[in-house]
Amino acid sequence: MEEKKNRNIEGYYDPTASEAIRHASTFGFRPLVYICSPFSGDKEKNLERARAYSRFAVDEGYIPLTPHLMYPQFMNERTERELAMHMDLVILKHCKELWVFGENITSGMQEELDLARKRNLTVKHFSEEKKLLKEEVWIRK
Asked: Which of 79, 83, 117, 82 is nearest to 97 (CA)?
């Protein structure tokens, strides 16, 4: 027999909504955060750092989006850089915040920063050791 707790407001059996509510109470709301850190240069080291920055975001209660951990799996940076940057900026538009790691700002990171500021996203600057250095909160007038 269907449990009463799995019924929606109209009384119909609705286990999907019930599961969503159960998971929300387990994990709580987690906003999307865009992880902005260098990719070019020492790619192995930069990818290792990006993974650590993403883990840091999870530990802080966010859902990290780190495109440079995903796109190199199936895209060629030399021939598809413009497309990858376009895709990065589309993803960034859905995030609540942009987190910048390190003091070396690459041209791609600058594009991401410019869009975040244009869209009035909160921008947090962290050291490579994940220490918060500065927070920019943009308020549209």
From this structure: 117
Closest C-alpha among 6, 26, 4 to residue 16 = 6
Q: Which long-range contacts (CB under 8 A, 24 or more apart) does 74-79 make?
A: 77/39, 77/40
Tokens 């902005």 identify what position? 36
Quick: pLDDT tens for 28-78. 889 999 999 999 889 999 999 999 999 999 999 999 999 999 999 999 989
- Say if CB 133 and CB 125 are below 8 A apart: yes
pLDDT tens for residues 71-130? 999 999 899 999 999 999 999 999 999 999 999 999 999 999 999 999 999 999 999 999
pTM over 0.70: yes
Torsion of CA 12, 13, 15, 20, to 10 degrees: 20
pLDDT digits (tens, 9 = 90+) for 18-34: 676 666 667 788 999 99
Q: Kindly compute the dihedral angle of the four CA atoms of residues 113, 102, 45, 35, in this order, to the nearest 10 degrees.
A: -40
The candidate with the shortest Cα–Cα distance to 46, out of 109, 133, 115, 124, is 109
